[in-house]
Design a protein that fits this description.
Largest sheet of chain A: 3 strands, antiparallel
Distance between the termini of chain A: 68 Å
Strand order of the largest sheet of chain A: 1-3-2
Number of helices of chain A: 8
Radius of gyration of chain A: 23 Å
Strand content of chain A: 5-15%
Order of helices and strands of chain A: HHEHHEEHHHH
Low-confidence stretches of chain A: none
Helix content of chain A: over 70%
Oligomer: homodimer
Number of strands of chain A: 3
Chain lengths: 183, 183
DNA sequence: TAATACTTTCAGAAATTTCTGAATATTCAA
DNA sequence: TTGAATATTCAGAAATTTCTGAAAGTATTA
């Protein structure tokens, strides 16, 4: 593989983005490279293409493994490991979401719950607890909901997304029906 | 205000989380403090409570202003600026989402579009473009959808969230009706 | 068993981000 | 105006994160 300007700009940008999604620049770039390359790449290939050390490649791949975003494959008569991105782009988005939930949201929810179990020592703490409860509920609602969406079939999810704010209409409709049934 | 252990643990944790949401630890902590404190705080109060320099507080507040997450208020006969968190927790989540879209997603979409406009120079680039198109479409779908959800009334949004994966049922139902109408 | 071909680890170097505090700017009352 | 009270800026210090490369580890073959 060669680093054409097109590929390079994509890989670089994905590196920057990576850090927003919970992993560092190198990890983002390695992943970008593997996503847009149909053939698996060896760790040496990756290091050369990105101009980074062999050790760094190893650490980056380890991280991507822990996110379950890459696959190791082999070639007959070749001892090297070859790496490939794993699953579709959609799978990737799901996995990033899932991992971040596990690593960030869950611990936060748990801390907030602990705080809410404590008795407020004064009016200030009572007010603080109210606000913390709001944050807790919002976070819990959103993650629960996101998780239930993840369990929807891709087609249904797609219908839902295409519907956009039109989903409001469908909800009104559903409410009317429920009201009739209740008669 | 005093930093009780309860408040301290919340503020610290929010600091850590902050960096995941696009701003640094201090900014997260300042915001946390303002959210759980009913009374507005002066920049000096904030610096003392968090044990950080006056300059750092100033920079943090500037950042929070740019995210439109704080408000400045005044007291008669007092020259100091007092700061308060702005809007509900829900507003805050919306604003963080909105800002991140502007600062991160939009530039990415624009780069991906540019790449897709280029002619692929060879089979490798053609494959890369296919994958990049997938990423582009996914990102665009999700952000468009998220934006249309933001325009929904809070009650409807709440209904939708409560519905969870049950939204699948409602969609099926809608499809059936549409089919009948088409007859 | 030893030699080879590769991968992983991790101490410290390099790069980046964040923070401090002195200097500067702003605002307002007298 | 001037001066007192406050806010902001920014160069460099401190802290943190990331990266390198030499050493150690692991398989495989001969």
């Amino acid at each position: 593989m060669r680093m054409t300007p097109m590929i390079e700009s994509f890989v670089c940008h994905f590196g920057e983005m990576g850090s927003r999604w919970g992993f560092n620049r190198t990890v983002g770039q390695i992943y970008a490279l593997l996503v847009i390359n149909q053939q698996p790449l060896s760790a040496n290939d990756i290091g050369e293409l990105l101009g980074i050390s062999r050790g760094n490649v190893s650490m980056g791949l380890k991280e991507l493994h822990s996110w379950q975003l890459v696959h190791t494959t082999h070639r007959p008569g070749d001892r090297k490991d070859y790496y490939q991105s794993r699953g579709s782009i959609w799978d990737m988005a799901n996995r990033v979401f899932e991992e971040r939930r596990k690593r960030e949201i869950d611990p936060t929810l748990s801390l907030l719950r602990d705080i809410l179990l404590d008795e407020a020592g004064n009016a200030e703490e009572a007010y603080a607890q109210e606000r913390i409860a709001e944050i807790h509920d919002l976070l819990e609602n959103i993650t629960d909901w996101a998780q239930s969406l993840q369990s929807l079939s891709p087609e249904k999810l797609n219908t839902l997304m295409k519907l956009g704010s039109g989903v409001g209409k469908v909800l009104e409709f559903k409410d009317k029906l429920m009201a009739k049934k209740a008669d």
